[in-house]
Amino acid sequence: MPTCRNCGKEWSWKQSFKKMFTLDTAMECPYCDRKQYLTTKARKRNSLLPFLAPLIMLLSILFDIPPSITLGMLLVTFLFIMGFSPLLMELSNEEEPLW
Ligand SMILES: [Zn+2]
């Protein structure tokens, strides 16, 4: 779970999950209201997750997996990503450059 770099309190899964959907790069800490940003490392990791979907589709073509199963796999992967994203979050007090 992500820990606030300002007050050191750990965000709950639910709090982190809600913060993921803010369009702004800054996420306010629910405890101290200081703005927190995702670290470059965490952002890069998150940007790789959407590539899992085309990978599954490619596998289903290669191994001739029926579309209904492929759809099920995509759904499971989607839920998996949603569930695990908050766990992979890492916070920083400042917005780090991407590269
Ligand atoms: Zn805080």
Commentary on this structure:
Helices cover 51% and strands 9% of the residues. It is mainly α and 99 residues long. Helix 1 (13-20) packs across helix 4 and helix 3 (52-62) packs antiparallel against helix 4. The chain starts with 12 loop residues before the first helix and ends in a 7-residue tail after the last strand. The mean pLDDT is 91. Bound molecules: zinc ion. The site of zinc ion has 8 residues, from loops.
Q: How is this structure best summarized?
A:
With 99 residues, the chain is mainly α.
Task: Specify the overall morphology.
Answer: elongated
How far the N terminus sits from the C terminus, by CA atoms, comes to 24 Å
Tally the structural domains. Answer: 1
Unreliable residue stretches: none
Mean pLDDT: 91
Strand order of the largest sheet: 1-2-3
Helix-and-strand structural type: mainly alpha
**What is the H/E string?**
HEEHHHE
Instruction: Indicate the proportion of strand residues.
Output: 5-15%
Biggest β-sheet description: 3 strands, antiparallel
Small molecules bound: zinc ion
Output the number of helix runs: 4
Quick one: how many beta strands?
3
What is the radius of gyration?
A: 16 Å
DSSP helix fraction = 40-55%
Describe how the helices and strands are arranged.
Layout: H1 13-20, E1 26-28, E2 35-38, H2 40-48, H3 52-62, H4 67-88, E3 91-92
Antiparallel strand pairs: 1-2, 2-3
Helix pairs in contact: 1-4, 3-4
This protein binds zinc ion.
